Amino acid sequence: MNCSQYIPPPHKQIFKAGEVALVGAGPGDPDLLTMQAFRFIKQADVVIYDRLVSQEIMALLPDNCKRVYVGKKQADHRVPQEGINQLLVEHAKLNQKVLRLKGGDPFVFGRGGEEAQFILSHGIACHIVPGMTAASACTSYAGIPLTHRKVARSCTFITGNVQDNGALDLPWQALNDPEQTVVFYMGIKSLPTITKQLIEAGRDKKTPAALIRKGTHADQQVVKGSLETLEALVKLHNIKPPSLIVIGDVIDTFADAQLTNIGYLSPKHLSAKK
Ligand SMILES: C[S@@+](CC[C@H](N)C(=O)[O-])C[C@H]1O[C@@H](n2cnc3c(N)ncnc32)[C@H](O)[C@@H]1O
Fold this sequence. Notes:
By secondary structure, this protein is an alpha/beta fold. It has 2 domains: 14-129, 3-Layer(aba) Sandwich (Cobalt-precorrin-4 Transmethylase, domain 1), CATH 3.40.1010.10; 134-265, Tetrapyrrole methylase, C-terminal domain (Methyltransferase, Cobalt-precorrin-4 Transmethylase, Domain 2). It is 22% helix and 20% strand. The protein is built from 7 helices and 12 strands. A 5-stranded parallel sheet has the order 3-2-4-1-5, sandwiched between helices. The protein is globular. The structure holds S-adenosylmethionine. S-adenosylmethionine binds at residues 27-28, 52, 102-105, 108-110, 133-134, 138, 185-186, 212, 214-216, 241-244.
């Protein structure tokens, strides 16, 4: 196909009254919103949002948009998932344009799939607007490439959230490839189990590891060490959620001193590794 002749299809999604839009707000920096997310945000009659949506993004909503906060701190859901589902359907039945604004991407560890299933089961249409997921955006802004030729040929996004029975039952053996970057979401509380299990599964305890707290926000924190020092680093730097745990040799691609601002690598200090 000749790209100069490409004409975008005339079927841009229209946000109609009585519909729900599941919109990914990205990890915090409003500059990482998609144009499509922005368009839906600007049309909302009501927004159902959780704590990962940044203030700067909330400020983009129309003044007359009703705001409903539903919390969603790990294990401290202000409104339980069933209640959130009901709220979405109730507002859609009031013939409103219902914006379900979620941190990152709605379909990555966001229960967006469950919400969409519930909405559809009530005969209500649902727009899905992807957002930048934390693992991708936060590592970029921290100067960490998720893959790098001859260093990491795959990356895995995985949850560190324990199951209902309190166990963290993950495929540890599948995570021990030294050329694999592993990013844990919601893993801070389970960090001792994560590091122990990875080392037992064969991952070298000297493997570089990083913690990224509030990635892409102005006060983002990036702390680097190794698999065996991570636990001590969490205590030392008082790392709390929302944070990612990143494991893999890609962390050493650039020297710490090269990250002179969030998402900004300076050429002044050459990397130790190439
Ligand atoms: C319930 S999950 C939601 C993930 C979201 N749907 C996404 O695609 O990024 C919440 C977890 O995402 C990670 N997270 C989200 N935003 C983050 C940020 N700005 N910085 C670091 N981690 C973040 C943390 O691990 C947090 O505990």
